[in-house]
Every structure is written in C-alpha cells, then in structure tokens.
Amino acid sequence: TTKEEKITKSSFDFINIIGKGGFGKVWKVFSRKYKKVFAMKEMSKVKIIDKRSEVSVKFERDLLEQMHHPFIINMHFSFQDTDNLYIAMDLLTGGDLRYHLCKYKKFFEEQTKFFIACIILSLEYIHTNNILHRDLKPENLVLDSNGYLKLTDFGIAKVYKKDNHKDTSGTLGYMAPEVICGENHTMAVDYFSLGVIRYEFMNGMRPYNGKNRKEIKEKIMAKQVQVKKDQIPIGWSTESADFINRLLQRKPINRLGLRGSIEVKDHLWFKDFDWKGLYLNRLKAPFIPRQ
Predict the structure, then answer these.
(1) Which residues fall within 8 angstroms of residue 91, CB to CB, at 6 or more apart?
(2) How far apart are CA 219 and CA 111, in angstroms?
(3) Which residues are catalytic?
(4) DSSP secondary-structure letter at 9?
(5) β-pairing, 24-31 with 12-20?
(6) Mean pLDDT, each 10-residue run in order, the chain (291 residues)
(7) Strands 141-143 and 84-89
(8) How far apart are CA 227 and CA 216, in angstroms?
(9) For the chain, which has fewer Cβ within 10 Å, the N-terminal or C-terminal residue?
(10) What are phi and psi of 209, to 5 degrees?
C-alpha cells in the first residue's frame, strides 16, 4: 500500500459492477497511475455500523495489509470517504470453485490435486503468520485466468491464541468438530475443511450434510468418515482416498496437518509433486476456466 500520496476514488476509473458483498458492491476498476485493473470493494459505513461489524472489517483490512502471497487474493490499496470504505484487491477472472462445482459436479484427480496443492500453499503462508482462516470452502477459492487457485475472504479469520473455544464462526459442513463443539482449536481446523473440499471434489457432495448445526453435529459425532477402497471412483488412486481419510479425522490429534503443512505435502498422494514449480507459477494447470 502506498502512503506517499493520497489515493481517492478519483484515482480510479470505475468500469462495472462485478459482484455484491455484505456491505456493498464490488467493482472492476482501472488505476490510471499503475495502468492496471483491480477489484474494488466499496463498503457502506452505515451498513457496517448497522451490522455491528466495525471490528471485523477493520481486522480484515489490517490483516490484508500485512499479508502478500501468490496464493491469496492480495490487497493493494485501501482508503475511505465520508460514506464508504474502499479496498482494492487482485482482480481474478476465473470464477470461484462453487461456480465450477455447480457446473461440472466434480473434478478429475489431476485437477483436484492441483487445486489442493494451491490451497496448501495458501494455508502454509497464513498459518506461518499465525492466522486461522476458519472459512475454507469452495466459495472462497477463486481461479485466475491460468487456472491457479487463490484464497480469499478473511472476514472471520483470527490470530491464533490458545484459548479460543468461544470462536465458533464458520460455515457448517466445512467446520471442524472441535469448533462445532466449542473446544479450543489449532491450525488443524483449516485442514479438516480441506478434507471436506477434497471429498467434495471427488464425490460431488460433502461428507456430512444436514439442515442445521444440530443435524450436522450429530452426523459428525455418529461416525468417522472413511473412504473405503470400493468407494473410490474409477480413475482415482488409493492414495487420494487415504489423503481424505487422514484429513477428515474427527480428533485433531489424529489429523493430517496438525503438525503443519510439511506433513500434508509429504503425503504419498503428493509424491514427486513439483511444489517449487507451482509456487513459481511454472506448472500448467489441468483445469483452465473458460473466460
């Protein structure tokens, strides 16, 4: 973020509306100074105050200001006027994974592995910075035009602290059991969500479904999800099923990722995977979104 000169709304050409957020609109804008397009969140101060969200909006903005990584959607500028707050972010044109899941129902193993690897790099970065995302789901994973996946929406992210049993926000169906049960939790909650996404990409549905918190909680408590050999879809490896089973462990102590990203990357499913090539954007993505 540049501090030298004042950035205002008039520093940008507002091209068109590309989305709606909880507090206002998202615009495609052009920065005349940088000759570059961005996605600009325009958030109404009145709406933020009405929803009592001042603290969380400020936290998200401050968090984005400190972070910068190729596998998250980065913030470049933020400013305000009397009515609105503005945040200029990377503009990604490939659509989010919920959109693509609705369209294609599921993905192939090679595509899934690439997506999951992108997510692992984003989690590795935020966890190293002591941040729990807590809302990992297909809606918050957006593709760029080359098929690389980036993590967004840090609206309910938290700085990790040991005593966090009261932090029970998230999206049901992707939420780790320890969060649903109001227990203290660690970075491993994001890896449980990753397991849910992995399962969904392979099967076209989530492992635990229910109409409300109570139903989902009962299902999670009733049985440990286990993808058995005879349930692996044609074209998928046994390692791919083991990867899901290790992530979806209800007890965090048994869950892959409890000891950090290194053990996730070391899983057999990623044997010989070119992590450096991925980080440097050198790999060809197996799924390219139609523009």
Answers:
(1) 28, 37, 38, 39
(2) 29
(3) 135
(4) G
(5) antiparallel
(6) 71 92 91 94 94 89 93 94 94 93 94 98 96 93 95 86 73 84 87 96 90 84 88 94 95 94 96 97 94 63
(7) unpaired
(8) 18
(9) C
(10) -125, 150
